[in-house]
Design a protein that fits this description.
single chain; 241 residues; five-stranded antiparallel sheet; globular; binds adenosine-5'-triphosphate; 11 strands; Rossmann fold; alpha/beta
Length: 241
Amino acid sequence: MSELLLSVRNLNAWYSHAQALFNISFSVKSGEIIALMGHNGAGKSTLLKALMHLLTQNSEQFIFDGTDVRKLSTDALCRRGIGWVPEDRRIFTNLTVLENLKVARPPKNTGLTVAQIWSIERVLTLFPSLVPLLKRKAAQLSGGEQQMLTVARTLLLNPKILLLDEPSEGVAPLVVERMKAAVIEMKAAGLSLILAEQNTHFVQGVAERAMVLLAGKVVFDGVLSQAMSYLNLGRPSVTSE
Ligand code: ATP
């Protein structure tokens, strides 16, 4: 596998005065998919928010694509190539599906070739079920359709890494399968992903590596198959005996 894309060392983050993340260190290589796992409240969404600089935080290192990005705003991180799909879908419900796609303006001068750029046509090949819905108001879509639209909009910003928060939560099984297939296609297109996901079925066959969080700390970082048994043990302790 290729070069390092993202590297974080000793990231701490707070909601108001309550510390939510503790000394998180990890890295992601170009083209790698990491499953971010852990029980409810373990800190998965919080870690993704911290990577987008949405929390009070500090870290010894946050390098993205060869640059120290610790001082960048959320907007600047997006422009540099970090795409975030939060749990609560971010779409304009009063606009149609097509209008939602058209307002997602990609950053200029990304250095990407035409083949690498995510155009509206290309994202629709990833989510063909959106095609017959293009003229429909986003408010009238199902949860799964809104989820697909949110991912499509984020891809149009041509991210180098996608932070996907619980893509399978609350959506129909068919949509889960479509989303999983889309993730596999994104990986084939060279995208890196961090998938915050509790659904072990979703991450199997998609991610090679997993990071398990417990109470805001990384308690496992390694091959996915080992993380599965680690999760099945219940709530593991940080130190092994
Ligand atoms: P889930 O799948 O249930 O969302 P998660 O692993 O994503 O779980 P987080 O949502 O990141 O967990 O929550 C981590 C901790 O931070 C929890 O203790 C939660 O109560 C707390 N937390 C989350 N959001 C806030 C907030 N806005 N203000 C204060 N505390 C929060």
